[in-house]
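Service request form, structural biology core

Requester: graduate student, group of Dr. S.
Request type: structure prediction, single chain
Budget code: on file
Notes: please return the result as structure tokens.

Sequence provided:
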Amino acid sequence: MTVELTKGLRFVMSARDEIDDAQDSHRRWVLHASADSHDTEDYAIVTRLIQRPSNAPMLSVAGMGQYGTLAAADFVCNPTAISDMLHHLPNDWANKNLQLILHVKVIDFKPVATEVVAEHAW
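Core staff response, request fulfilled:
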């Protein structure tokens, strides 16, 4: 669903293990998943699209793997993480569409740190 949703947007989940920047062909985030799911990192894409004024915004949260999805869901529900993210966004971000790329550090099958590595508001 995320592949379909992000078509035509800046950050595109082009495959299960790759997110591409449509405005910079040299910029991409690739997950090199291990066969035993003992990954040490993951990536996630968060997309918030403002619909017509009469409709609510739509939010999509998707990791390349299970750890990215879990960390991204935690991220969007964490007031401290959202507050820290605001320093990187334009003042009027709340009235714009928004995409974030998150890098997730994984230790012992648990996401332990999440960092915003790219953002785009329009």
